[in-house]
Amino acid sequence: MVVVKQGSRATAIFLGAIGLVLTLLVAPNISGDTKAFGFEAPPTSAQISFNPQVLVGAIGILLIITAALSVSPIAGHAIVRWLTWISVASFLPLSVAIALALSESSSTNVTNLIGQSLILSTPIALGAMTGLWCERAGIINIGIEGMMLAAAGVGFMVYAVLGDANGTGWLWLSILIAVLAGGLTAAIHAALCIKYQIDQIVSGVVINLFALGLTGFLRSEVIVETGITSGSPTTDIALPLLSDIPVVGEELFVGGPIYWSMYVIVFLSWFVMYHTPWGLRVRSSGENPHAAETLGVNVLRIRYQAVILGGFIAGLAGAWFSMEQQAGFDDRLTNNAGFIALAALIFGKWKPWGAFAGALLFGFARAFQSRLQLLSVKIGDFDLPSEFLQSLPFIITIVVVAGALGRAVPPAAEGKPYRPGS
């Protein structure tokens, strides 16, 4: 008798259904003209040609085989696990192949697409680390969006008012102010949740509404009044040696300082949380605060520290929007990245590397949305409306969260008020 876990069965059904759709419906009805994955900007010719019908059909068969093996007697074998990961990874080339098949373009630069995906994942990954520190300590934080937005607005206001949105020194001071602004809004959230013990969801909503009103006021009454609506963003940094690699060097190993800090912060979050005593205290405060207290852990202090640390990270994410992606500020500049970061956190099961993988997925969704517009994708004679393309990252967010919620288990004490000695 073969016992199949519920998660494996759900994965098998999902992969099998997608495989059947690709094999029986999609592959026979898309263009069979030769297309190509390009790896360099035109007019260079580093590319891989393929037939969309063959590639889509082959991926469909791979998904069907993986689904069948996932419910077979060898379901737990390492080969099946590797096949599952390969099948999931195949969705990336599959998406691009179908987009090309529905476009009049013969090729697209996938190296550039990957580079854009990595860069656009920056605020999502940083936001996910914000949520990680807060929720691992037991505090729900749906105010990540507000923390990012407040930091982006306050940071650029300082840059415009004091430095005329120009000058390296003023830029770095403004980034520091943005980080502090994120920490301050997080401190407000921490006080509301920990000291006054109001509902943590309500507190997060308050932070988001407060940031929306604050930044709207700062933009209309301060930034616009200066007459400075744009300036000089951060300068890209090329990694030595790696940026000189042919084909991929300039696309994958050149980026702004906040972008590179994303990798450092994800690594440090993993290292500190799982390899230091303080990280253990944070996790214990979110799992079993009463037991942690009996061992001498000051649970309330740990929660304050973790939430404010997360706020600093959210502030850096906000600075990425207004001082690295562009040097300017518009209302709702963060474009719901904080909520997508929460989805990445849930997708990653409240673990640093899992959340980072989720951020990369959503970064790809945002980059792919722009690429679909560039390729002018059509289904028959029907042009995909720009509104649908703009909603694509949020559709993926809903699908991913719906699929992850049944298997992702949050910290046991998350969202539960705590009183010492109770």
Structure description:
The protein is mostly helical. The chain is 68% helix and 5% strand. The strands form 3 sheets. A 3-stranded mixed sheet has the order 2-1-3. Strands 4-5 form a two-stranded antiparallel ribbon. Strands 6-7 form a two-stranded antiparallel sheet.
List the helices and strands and how they pair.
Elements: H1 6-26, E1 35-38, E2 47-50, H2 52-70, H3 78-89, H4 91-101, E3 107-109, H5 110-120, H6 122-136, H7 144-163, H8 168-195, H9 200-226, E4 237-238, H10 249-252, E5 254-255, H11 257-275, H12 277-287, H13 289-294, H14 299-325, H15 337-347, H16 352-375, E6 378-379, E7 382-383, H17 386-404
Classify the helix fraction into a percent range.
55-70%
CATH topology of the largest domain: ABC transporter involved in vitamin B12 uptake, BtuC
Q: What strand order characterises the main sheet?
A: 2-1-3
Integer-rounded radius of gyration? 23 Å
Distance between the termini: 48 Å
Query: Counting H and I runs of at least 4 residues, what is the number of helices?
Result: 17
Provide the β-strand percentage band.
under 5%
What characteristic shape results from the CA principal axes?
globular
User: Mind describing the biggest β-sheet?
Assistant: 3 strands, mixed
Averaging pLDDT over every residue, what do you get?
89
Give me some keywords for this one:
422 residues; mainly alpha; ABC transporter involved in vitamin B12 uptake, BtuC; 3-stranded mixed sheet; two-stranded antiparallel sheet; 17 helices; 7 strands; globular
Q: What's this, in brief?
A:
The chain is mainly α. The protein has helices at 6-26, 52-70, 78-89, 91-101, 110-120, 122-136, 144-163, 168-195, 200-226, 249-252, 257-275, 277-287, 289-294, 299-325, 337-347, 352-375, 386-404, and strands spanning 35-38, 47-50, 107-109, 237-238, 254-255, 378-379, 382-383. It has a three-stranded mixed sheet. It has a two-stranded antiparallel sheet with strand order 4-5. A two-stranded antiparallel ribbon has the order 6-7.
